[in-house]
Amino acid sequence: DITDVPIIFNFQLNWNPEYSYCKIPETWQGEIPAHWQTLCRQVLPPERGIPEFKNIAISNIRAHCISEKCSSTLFKVEGSPQKPIKSVSFKNIVAEASTAGFIKYACGWSFDNAVFNIGDETKINLEQCCDIKLDSVRYGRP
């Protein structure tokens, strides 16, 4: 059981790349250790530096709010345009959330026996997705 969490399914692959790549300042005058040089080495081709998430199975989850102040989002998913999150299956999921949220840059997701009770009655917003099978999802109100 998952209770009183702000985001039930959170896959966030936008890791703020502008802060993720090391660079030794040009004004640096000291010795440069070997591990600094390794950390600063550029990844080539750049696609090798983008994480890839695929073949994920999530099953037998119950998520709900116990506290009166609970406010939650069902999905906050953002893959990358170059490497969408692929082949994710959800089975036997019952989730209660305040709002449905979004799935962005994802392909090949399936839902089997999924019930989503959404307080504001929104549906999952799909952006830049392919082959996301939501037809078997049942929506309701908490």
Protein model, in words:
By secondary structure, the protein is mainly β. It has 2 domains: 2-15 and 51-140, no CATH class; 17-49, no CATH class. Helix content is 5%, strand content 49%. It contains 1 helix and 8 strands, in the order E-E-H-E-E-E-E-E-E. The two termini are 16 Å apart. 19% of the residues are buried. The model has no long low-confidence stretch (mean pLDDT 91).
Q: Mind sketching the topology for me?
A:
Layout: E1 2-3, E2 7-12, H1 34-40, E3 54-64, E4 73-78, E5 85-97, E6 99-118, E7 125-133, E8 138-140
Parallel strand pairs: 1-3, 2-4, 3-5, 4-6, 5-6, 6-7, 6-8
In short:
Helices cover 5% and strands 49% of the residues. It is mainly beta and 142 residues long.
Characterize the biggest β-sheet.
8 strands, parallel
| Count of alpha and pi helical runs | 1
- Helix and strand sequence: EEHEEEEEE
Distance between the termini: 16 Å
Annotation, overall tally of beta strands: 8
Helix content: under 10%
Structural class: mainly beta
Task: Give start-end ranges of low-pLDDT stretches.
Answer: none
The total domain count is: 2
List keywords for this structure.
single chain, 142 residues, mainly beta, 2 domains, 1 helix, 8 strands
